[in-house]
Design goal:
Layout: E1 5-17, E2 23-29, E3 31-34, E4 39-40, E5 44-51, E6 55-65, E7 70-81, E8 88-94, E9 98-99, E10 103-111, E11 114-125
Parallel strand pairs: 3-11
Antiparallel strand pairs: 1-2, 1-5, 4-9, 5-8, 6-7, 6-10, 10-11
Length: 136
């Protein structure tokens, strides 16, 4: 067995598990827009898939505002894996994450405390929109 391998790390509007255990990942994204801060977005999901692990493993995901190194979403747990070739799929609904300000947020996935992958979530102030019917 080598190092754990992160197969996927996605942000999505929804992740559903079908009766046949297939996952439906709907509306992936890498950016949020908000009118004001702090902001809490409607429920969204994180999908993670990892392989090349066996036995019981501790995992954690931390979503961090990069410039302040402020953790805004800590997730942790354990997974049991019998076969190192298996891909472990993890789905996390996010209901109450509060983004304190505009910026770059990094999501890091860790196995046994060691980072095995990460990705960025950009959170921006919504650009000013021109009026629908500008005055003439």
């Amino acid at each position: 067995m080598g190092e754990p391998v992160l197969v996927a790390l996605l942000f999505a509007d929804r992740v559903i598990e079908e009766k046949n255990h297939k996952k439906g990942i709907i509306g992936t994204f890498s950016r949020f827009y908000a009118d004001t801060f702090p902001v809490q977005f409607p429920p969204w999901f994180i999908y993670a898939a990892v392989t090349n692990i066996s036995g019981e493993n501790s995992f954690s995901l931390n979503l961090v505002l990069e410039k302040a190194q402020q953790v805004i979403l800590p997730i942790s747990g354990k997974c049991q894996v019998d076969n190192t070739r298996s891909v472990v799929e993890l789905i996390f609904p996010v209901f109450r994450a509060i983004f304190p300000e505009e910026g770059i947020y990094a999501l890091t996935f860790n196995i046994e405390g060691l980072p095995i992958g990460s990705r960025i979530l950009e959170v921006f102030k919504r650009p000013d929109q021109p009026p629908a019917n500008p005055p003439e």
